[in-house]
Amino acid sequence: MPTVAERREMPSGPAAPVKGKRPLRRAVLLAVLLGGVGFGGYEAYGYWTNGRFMVSTDDAYVQADITVLSAKVSGYVAEVPVENNQAVKAGDVIARIDAGDYRLAVRAARDKLATQQAAIERLARQADAGRAGVQQAMAQLDAARADAERAAGELQRQSQLGQSGYSTAARLEQVRADQQRSAATVAGAEAALAAAHANVDVLTAQGAEAERVAAEYKTAVDRAERDLSFTEIRAPVDGVVGNRAVEVGSYVQPGARLAAVVPLTTVHIDANFKETQMGSLHPGQRVRLEIDALPGREIEGRVESVAPASGSVFSLLPPENATGNFTKIVQRVPVRIAIPDDVANERLLRPGLSAVVRVDSRDAGSAEAAAPRRAVAQAPASTQTDATDGPPVARKHKP
């Protein structure tokens, strides 16, 4: 049996395995440290080789050129053959307005046009009759001139016979009266011919006036038919109906909003980048898109265009910075991102969905997008202008 002193010197039972756990703990800590260093190195390598060239923003949303349909004419809605979220094709009827009054307006306009065309026909026949009267007046003038020549010749013969004593004074006076009457008949025939010509001119002018009135009536018919066509509101593009705001029996006025058509096959991304990021963005660059509604799926897009001003400039109340209380705020510029057609045709992207956009700044963009910039850079100096308003000032190229 051990003594009390030996028992004190002997290690207790639970404390014996402590020395065996220390190497294991050190190994675990070393593995964790090495793993952290490796992961950090991997992330640092990824940032150095790729991440630092990516320009990203999460202030991006799916957008589309939504068409808002409005009424052009007033009336009661007779039919609404579509529902919300229904796919439609270009030309499909979205709503119909009661067209009874507009059909009557078309009929009245056509009746006026028909009446005017009948008047034109009547004036044309009168003009033909007037031309026939001109021909008759010309024939009568020719006959009167022939009688006048005969009377003038008879007067000359009778004058010669009277001088030789073979004709009486009474006969000479009768012949002279016949000659004067023939001359008067010629003058009357000439006046009748002039009147016939004037009548034809008047009828021709009336016909031209009637033609102009008929043209006005034709315009009225076209306007009435156009108003009649507006009673059917049709989809201008392929898309999906949304926000329908009209029901059967509603009375609509011109400009009243009826529904919206969203073309899902032509969606795009509007990404709002900070102004400090704009120096690396150019049209044509490749873009990596992550849509929140499609987790785990990466879509490749293209920078299509850059807005000409920041979003605040186009707001309803643009900021006025010429004040004493000024705080500088980083502005954002909208950048339009094109989505591939095959992705858009899936109709999975809806306007308003959030997205994360990453642009590879190492991509210089497409050749088509870079061409305008090269053209501006290579423009001749003779086309440059001074900063002040004025005509172009020729400048010499420096060697």
Automatic annotation (TrEMBL):
Q: Which residues form a coiled coil?
A: 106-161, 207-234
Keyword Coiled coil (UniProt): yes
Instruction: Enumerate the spans annotated as Multidrug resistance protein MdtA-like barrel-sandwich hybrid domain.
Output: 70-262
Boundaries of every CusB-like beta-barrel domain copy:
267-309
Q: Where are the transmembrane segments?
A: 27-48
| Biological-process GO terms, alphabetical | transmembrane transport
Give the matching PANTHER family: MEMBRANE FUSION SUBUNIT OF EMRAB-TOLC MULTIDRUG EFFLUX PUMP, MULTIDRUG RESISTANCE EFFLUX PUMP
Stretches of Low complexity bias are at 366-382
Spell out the residue ranges making up region: Disordered.
Answer: 361-399
| Keywords in alphabetical order | Coiled coil, Membrane, Transmembrane, Transmembrane helix
The protein's matches in Pfam families, at most eight in alphabetical order, are given as: Beta-barrel_RND_2 (PF25954), BSH_RND (PF25917)
For this entry, the protein name equals HlyD family secretion protein
The record's annotation in SUPFAM superfamilies points to: HlyD-like secretion proteins (SSF111369)
* Domain of life of the native organism: Bacteria
